[in-house]
Every structure is written in structure tokens, then in C-alpha cells.
Predict the structure of Uroporphyrinogen-III synthase.
Amino acid sequence: MKVKKVLVSQPKPASDKSPYYDIAEKYGVEIVFRPFIKVEGLTAKEFRQSKIAITDFSAIIFTARTAIDHFFRLCEEMRVTIPDTMKYFCTTESIALYLQKYIVYRKRKIFHGETGKLDGLMSLLIKHKKERFLYIVSDVHKEDTSILDSNGINYTKAVMYRTVSNDFGPDEKFDYDMLLFFSPSGINSLLKNFPGFEQNDIRIGCFGGTTAQAVRDAGLRLDLEAPSVKAPSMTAALDNFLKEDAKNG
């Protein structure tokens, strides 16, 4: 069966220049952006149950823009005044620059790594080892924090947002020939929305090893997996797949 309609379980790209649009035009397929999961912030009441006082900390670790949004949202809701002396440590420069949405960037002590992972921040964290770090995370964060422990970093994890299923409405069509997933949470949401889901001719593609394992653990067939040597991105993998599909169709 030829693929005609693809569900990409991510938000619609902000730019019209997304490779997905090129692929849709190239192969004459319809690509629909429809997340299976969504991020939801904890309420101030929920966060207070963690007994974490933000003002007890002298530095914050951010690994995502979403973490920044929910940190400042909760501070505002709880009327917490963040001192000008607070230091901010971000895993990438783009995350660090995002802080400009909430603070006067040039007047604050902001540090960033290059790799996007905690290990890329370690030299900076060790240099500021005397700080008390608050590490903002989601309820399903996967970052390995053993590197913080082994280097004696004084930190506390603070869950400020969570990933929940973005449920399908009763009148929402589910007529896709292919589903693309980017996290195990997406697979869980698929099975929650459609408890008796039968894959049959529906192709399933995923990005990342943990997502691939989640597909297999759910007893589903995995038809496309990225990244790989030939396809470092999901769009490259989809392009290759549809090319073969067109030949065989």
C-alpha cells in the first residue's frame, strides 16, 4: 500500500522552509503535524508540595527553553523575587539567549555549554562548585545526572512541568498510512488513545533508540528508524522511505 498521508507527532514547524514541506511536495503526500503528547506546567500549589524554596539556591541549570518558561511562570505565580545575583547555567547558547525573554541578559551572570548535554557544562559547574544549583526538569527527564554526583555538585532537581497525552477527540479522524514518533511517551499516548490499536498496513517510524524500543515493547512493527548513517535526521529517513515506496508502488 502506497503512503499517502503521514502523521508527524510534533508541533507544526514555525517556518515554511521545513524539509517536511519539500518532502510532501516531492512525493505528493499529505503531512499532518499532530503531537501525541503536550507539555503541561505544574501549578504553584503542586510545586509547593515539593518543599523546594527557589530562594535557597544561588544558581539554576536549564537544559530546555520549556524549563525556562515554567521556571519564570512559577516564580511569578508564587511571587518569588529572583535576586540579581542568581547565576544561570544553560546546556546551549540558544537556551541561554532565550533568557532574554525574562531578564536583562547583559546584567546577569549567564553561562552556557556547547554540546547540549550536562557533560558540556561540567567545567563551568566545577568552577562554580560553591553554588547551590537548582536543576529544572520535567517529570520524564532522561538526562543522566551521575556526572553531577561524581563531581560533587550540590544540586536539587525541581520538577516544574510534565508530559501528558494529547488526546484525540471523538470526531477526530485517524486515517493515516504512516505515523512518526519521537519519544516513548508518544507510543504510550497512541495506545492510550486507541487501546485496541491494530497496525495492519500502517507504517511506523521513530527517532532514537529508546523510542524504537518502546515501539517493539508495544508489540508493533517498526518500518523506519532514524538516525542512521544514511539518514541522520527523521526527514532524511522519511525521504528515503518514500523514495523506495514510490518505486515499489
